[in-house]
């Protein structure tokens, strides 16, 4: 068996190069790598599953069509997320136009937190999860999106800025505001229970 | 980490959350970061409360994931493929006379290549460590090849040819059912060869694992007959939910939850009271590390649970936390250093 070992970034770049020359297998590899993540990201903008799938479809058809002129983005993931985000915002804005909105900046971003069920008993879990959810829901769409990209997708501030089309400074600012807001809106007790719960792992 | 130790003196909670290395330390800690942050804490014990708070905030940010299930993902891909790669073969209108010319040339080429063809008749696919691959066989049957595995088969299957594949490592197969009624013809048969076993199927989905001198076949649906390729003994007939293991010269049949057993193909692993030593074998087979354990007692412990194996780092981290051990990959020596905490 072979001992060759590529780190994920390298093999992804190889696939990207090969995709640009028109290799269907590499194109499919990119789809397999990113479709689930994009779908999850898209879901936060719109509850309309068909719309999200349509945007994923459009994104991939687009990059295939212009593959030879597409260049080599520094981060493939950021490039795809950014293009996908633009598509979704455009589509939702178009749909909303009929209802009187037409501001591209005016978008929704809805996340739910997932507190592991097995770890905290029912009543308590409901209470804490309620508090957290409430605090988060008071954030603006931009703040929620930045938090999601940072904590869920683990992007850096530079990457968040790239995906959301804002300056790096602005991405720091958005995050700082949202965090201080969360801190003010959660009680010490909530935080402590959460902390313990995450450390009481199932088997040890 | 270009920061001076004194930079941390006046750190606020926001600074911490904004600090790349802090985030990584909380979500995917390693020895280096542990040392780094304990030395900071030692120098500035006053930071303890905000470090604690920062950890809490980061760790409570777990978002619900909206899942694109495998079927939807496949369907969406089919639509995309139909609009892109499948369409991409240029369709040209050829005038009648040139079509004949093209046909004549084609015949010529086929004839000439027939002589060389035999050298290219077989396809071999080898997956690297840490990567799965989906393979479509000439009859449209589907194979998911686990990492560090290989499959070999004829490029084309003739009309009267038995469908045969050779597998090393681990694979999940979904075989197209061609036999409808009457006598089973050759081309309706499908045989998987492993080191010691021949698995014959009609149309079914099953998992084959041939590693470390142990061969195991798990059947999800359909019917499979399984025999040693060295002896003429009567083959074992398997029913869905059965797993047959071949170790030490003997075949054993037992029931398992085969859906769990084949879950690796969806990037998920189920462990049900599995000895830790087996999980470490898996690290070696799939990711290509040599596992070094400082305390053999760890190997005797057992683990249950579901985890995602899609991301190697996260996978190691989940196991490390659950067992309260540290797992540190050394990329130069390809060793996985495992220490009890």
UniProtKB/TrEMBL annotation, chain A:
GO terms for molecular function: DNA binding; sigma factor activity. One of its GO terms (biological process) is DNA-templated transcription initiation. Keywords: Sigma factor, Transcription, Transcription regulation. Gene3D superfamilies: 1.10.1740.10, Winged helix-like DNA-binding domain superfamily/Winged helix DNA-binding domain. Residues 132-180 form the RNA polymerase sigma factor 70 region 4 type domain. Belongs to the sigma-70 factor family. ECF subfamily. This is RNA polymerase sigma factor 70 region 4 type 2 domain-containing protein. It comes from Pedobacter antarcticus 4BY.
TrEMBL record, chain B:
It comes from the Bacteria. Residues 268-328 form the Protein FecR C-terminal domain. Keywords: Membrane, Transmembrane, Transmembrane helix. The chain crosses the membrane at residues 100-120. The keyword Transmembrane applies. Residues 124-224 form the FecR protein domain. InterPro entries: FecR, FecR_C, Ferrdict_sens_TM. One of its GO terms (molecular function) is sigma factor antagonist activity. PANTHER family: PERIPLASMIC SIGNAL SENSOR AND SIGMA FACTOR ACTIVATOR FECR-RELATED, PROTEIN FECR. This is Uncharacterized protein.
């Amino acid at each position: 068996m072979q001992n060759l070992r590529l780190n994920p970034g390298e093999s992804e770049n190889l696939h990207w190069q090969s995709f640009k020359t028109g290799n269907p297998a590499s194109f499919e590899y990119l789809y397999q790598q990113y479709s689930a993540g994009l779908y999850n990201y898209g879901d936060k903008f719109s509850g309309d599953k068909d719309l999200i799938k349509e945007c994923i479809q459009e994104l991939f058809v687009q990059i295939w069509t212009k593959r030879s002129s597409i260049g080599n983005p520094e981060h493939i993931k950021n490039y795809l997320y950014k293009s996908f985000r633009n598509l979704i915002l455009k589509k939702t804005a178009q749909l909303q136009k009929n209802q009187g909105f037409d501001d591209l900046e005016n978008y929704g971003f809805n996340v739910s937190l997932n507190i592991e069920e097995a770890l905290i008993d029912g009543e308590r879990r409901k209470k804490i999860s309620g508090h957290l959810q409430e605090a988060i829901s008071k954030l603006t769409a931009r703040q929620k999106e930045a938090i999601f990209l940072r904590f869920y997708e683990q992007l850096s501030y530079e990457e968040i800025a790239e995906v959301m089309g804002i300056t790096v400074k602005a991405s720091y600012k958005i995050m700082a505001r949202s965090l201080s807001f969360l801190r003010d809106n959660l009680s010490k007790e909530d935080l402590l229970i959460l902390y313990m719960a995450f450390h009481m792992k199932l088997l040890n | 980490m270009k920061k001076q130790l004194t930079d941390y003196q006046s750190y606020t909670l926001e600074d911490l959350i904004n600090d790349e290395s802090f985030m990584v330390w909380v979500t995917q800690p390693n020895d280096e970061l542990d040392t780094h942050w304990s030395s900071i804490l030692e120098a500035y014990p006053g930071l303890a409360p905000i470090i604690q708070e920062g950890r809490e905030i980061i760790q409570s940010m777990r978002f619900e994931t909206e899942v694109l299930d495998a079927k939807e993902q496949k369907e969406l891909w089919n639509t995309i493929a139909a609009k892109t790669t499948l369409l991409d073969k240029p369709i040209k209108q050829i005038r009648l006379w040139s079509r004949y010319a093209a046909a004549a040339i084609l015949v010529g080429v086929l004839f000439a290549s027939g002589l060389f063809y035999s050298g290219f008749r077989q396809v071999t696919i080898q997956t690297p460590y840490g990567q799965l691959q989906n393979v479509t066989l000439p009859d449209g049957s589907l194979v998911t090849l686990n990492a560090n595995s290989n499959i070999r088969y004829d490029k084309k299957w003739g009309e009267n040819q038995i469908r045969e594949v050779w597998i090393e490592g681990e694979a999940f197969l979904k075989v197209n059912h061609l036999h409808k009624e009457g006598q089973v013809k050759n081309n309706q048969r499908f045989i998987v060869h492993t080191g010691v076993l021949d698995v014959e199927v009609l149309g079914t989905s099953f998992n084959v694992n041939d590693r470390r001198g142990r061969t195991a076949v798990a059947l999800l649906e359909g019917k499979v007959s399984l025999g040693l390729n060295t002896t003429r003994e009567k083959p074992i007939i398997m029913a869905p939910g059965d797993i047959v293991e071949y170790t030490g010269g003997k075949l054993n049949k037992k029931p398992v939850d085969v859906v769990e057993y084949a879950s690796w193909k969806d990037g998920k692993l189920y462990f049900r009271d599995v000895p830790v030593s087996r999980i470490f074998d898996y690290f070696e087979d799939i990711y290509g590390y040599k596992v070094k354990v400082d305390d053999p007692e760890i190997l005797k412990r057992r683990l249950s649970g579901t985890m995602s194996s899609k991301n190697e780092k996260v996978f190691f981290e989940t196991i490390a936390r659950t067992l309260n051990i540290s797992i540190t990959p050394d990329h130069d020596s390809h060793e996985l250093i495992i220490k009890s905490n």
